[in-house]
Amino acid sequence: MSINVRIPAPLRKLTDGQSDVSADGATVTSLIDDLEQRHPGLKERLCDDNGGIRPFVNIYLNDEDIRFLDGANSKLNDGDLVSIVPAIAGGS
Amino acid sequence: MDFSEEEIERYSRHIILSEVGGEGQQKLKDAKVFMVGAGGLGSPAALYLAAAGVGTLGIVDLDVVDLSNLQRQILHATPDVGRDKVESAKETLLAINPNITVNTYTERITSANVLDIIGNYDIVMDGSDNFPTRFLMNDACFQLKKPLVSGSMFRFDGQVTVLRGHEPDDPCYRCLYPEPPPADLVPSCQEAGILGVLAGTVGVLQATETIKLILGQGEALVGRLLVYNALEMEFMKVKYRKNPKCLLCGPDPQITELLDYEISCTLQQH
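^ Those are the sequences you sent over. The predicted structure of the assembly is below.
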């Protein structure tokens, strides 16, 4: 199974600058674990110490916020697009 | 309609649009828009709102114009370096459209003054450069039931959305992002850098949403986050909803007064 993952600019240091990477996982949780294997350091930026997704990082499955699906347990299908979108605050 | 001949000619390309017309142009003239920041996002947005004939613009900014601002903050020009940004902004805006009123506020916006400052405005446009102000504007707009047109940027990325958490089905900023990141996870302004023209794209999208709200035309960018990446030239729209657990606008609110988060960006100007 291959999931296409969109990496936001602040995290691309961890993916050798790539904005799109592939990873596997039946759920968002297992996808994040697989991402961590491929790009060490990524999980820490997405999840807090208890494994919960940080409140200032949003994860979208296709165009739906997983918070309004099944959260980290949301199921993934081959070909899904997962987008990581952190809060950004620049304006000046 | 109370327009002079000069105004009718000035706004003729608006008035000819059936979606605007004289009635819509009058709505623009009657509208009062408050802008947080006369910087990267505030500059292009204010220029277009002024040109469009938005009758009253309020602008808050504490900073003075710095040479390093001019790469993107197009309200200001080289001779303005060292001047208060709001003064420079006012001069530029009135030169484009002397028919409008520009109110300036040279102060830091805090929980103590925000309600008084924005109370007289219809719509707030957030072009601030830090999370504490973004959460404060969200909470204040929720309290006062004002739409908040939010734009933000980082390096080559931008985000735009319209927040109306006071409406029963519409989300607020805390529905989108429940909490600000801790200060140590926010890259410093200097580290981040910003593609100057990105500010134009994001600010103009905010101005577009603001004008749509005033006119009551089209579909507001509510419950949808527009994510723009300049390098890939990609616009992605994702959905979000009113969070039933939202501490501000949910059914069991825990945040009932305005909070001042610590400002995490230590640089005054960037």
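Chain B touches chain A through 51 residues (CB under 8 Å). The beta strands of chain B are 32-36, 56-60, 101-105, 123-126, 148-154, 157-163, 224-229, 234-239.

Shout if you want it in another format.
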